[in-house]
Amino acid sequence: MKKSTFRNQSFYWIIISILCGLLIWNLYVTITQSKLIGLLPIAIQCTLLTMIFKKHEYAKIGIKIWATLFLAIASGLQFVGRLLQDLADGFSYVPLQHYLITGITILIGVLIVVYTNKTVEIETLENSST
């Protein structure tokens, strides 16, 4: 049997805190705006939290996929999309807050992937069936 092992407990709790914060935010937005599309990130975050708490063997790959797709790539597309929109508008109004938030989110996503590679290991446990 295999399981994920977090060598750095601070990183373990930071990932859980980020996921719980985003889960609470997505629950709030989904309920207040009554949009069913909000159930998708809720389901993904609940699944990922369950894998992390159970130390499932796929927790490492789940964290990496989540950070890559939903933090780095999605924020990168938002960044480029706004940049193209501002370019088309002649940079008459530049929303620096949007660029700052998406840039930080991209950086956080990349750091999570790098740190997951360094600190999360998959261990094989021996079954003692005698």
TrEMBL record:
<keyword id="KW-0472">Membrane</keyword>
<feature type="transmembrane region" description="Helical">
    <location>
        <begin position="12"/>
        <end position="30"/>
    </location>
</feature>
<feature type="transmembrane region" description="Helical">
    <location>
        <begin position="65"/>
        <end position="84"/>
    </location>
</feature>
<feature type="transmembrane region" description="Helical">
    <location>
        <begin position="96"/>
        <end position="115"/>
    </location>
</feature>
<feature type="transmembrane region" description="Helical">
    <location>
        <begin position="36"/>
        <end position="53"/>
    </location>
</feature>
<keyword id="KW-1133">Transmembrane helix</keyword>
<keyword id="KW-0812">Transmembrane</keyword>
<protein>
    <recommendedName>
        <fullName>DUF4293 family protein</fullName>
    </recommendedName>
</protein>
